[in-house]
Specification:
Elements: E1 4-9, H1 10-17, E2 23-26, E3 45-51, E4 77-92, H2 95-99, H3 109-117, E5 124-141, E6 152-154, E7 171-172, H4 176-190
Parallel strand pairs: 1-3
Antiparallel strand pairs: 1-6, 2-5, 3-4, 4-5, 5-7
């Protein structure tokens, strides 16, 4: 069962669900439980929460940009299309190491630089994520408890939703052999 979600740009959630990227970068949001800019992997299985805040389509590689404009206002409903499992997490010691894995993430240099430059004494983390598409999209009412610059959004009664999401019938976005090769490459580069 899936009982929490990881906030990520809506377009990146779509790319993960389509199997077009596997690597996420995290530094930590303003409202993290461990303090501003201090990311911690609190869950290794989570739904992808499609967030519009801070989404900058021009910071994505041109071939990975969605065929839509910027999202101006958050919807009254959140549509969860996919979920992921973390296959590995590594602090990224240098920009060169991340550049060696360029085709596994969707960001252009300005977005990557922003992550490295924000609170430079704290590491950027690379999360290798195996994505799965839900059998059917799960729609939840948006709630004030979901707001803010944070990584993790728990599902629960305080948010007025229906609790956990059952991932039964989900389909992997990338086949086992391809994902295994990606995992070996990322671990060899960052591990």
């Amino acid at each position: 069962m899936i009982d929490t979600a990881l906030k990520e740009w809506t377009c990146v959630c779509d790319l993960l669900a389509a199997g077009r990227c596997t690597l996420l970068l995290r530094k930590g949001g303003v409202h993290e439980t461990t303090g501003p800019g201090r990311f911690r992997l609190e869950h290794d299985r989570f739904a992808f929460f499609p967030a519009w805040e801070h989404e900058k389509l021009d910071w994505l590689k041109p071939g990975l940009r969605p065929d839509r404009g910027a999202i101006e206002h958050e919807s009254d409903e959140i549509v969860f299309r996919a979920w992921g499992e973390v296959a590995g997490i590594w602090p990224v010691a240098s920009r060169d190491l991340l550049d060696a894995l360029d085709e596994l993430h969707p960001w252009l240099p300005p977005q990557i630089d922003m992550r490295f430059d924000y609170k430079p004494d704290r590491p950027v983390y690379a999360l290798l994520v195996r994505a799965y598409r839900f059998a059917r999209p799960v729609v939840r009412a948006n709630h004030p408890a979901f707001a803010g610059c944070r990584s993790w959004v728990p599902f629960g009664e305080e948010a007025g939703d229906r609790g956990v999401i059952d991932p039964a019938g989900s389909v992997a976005a990338i086949d086992d052999a391809t994902f295994g090769a990606v995992h070996e490459r990322v671990a060899g580069t960052l591990g």
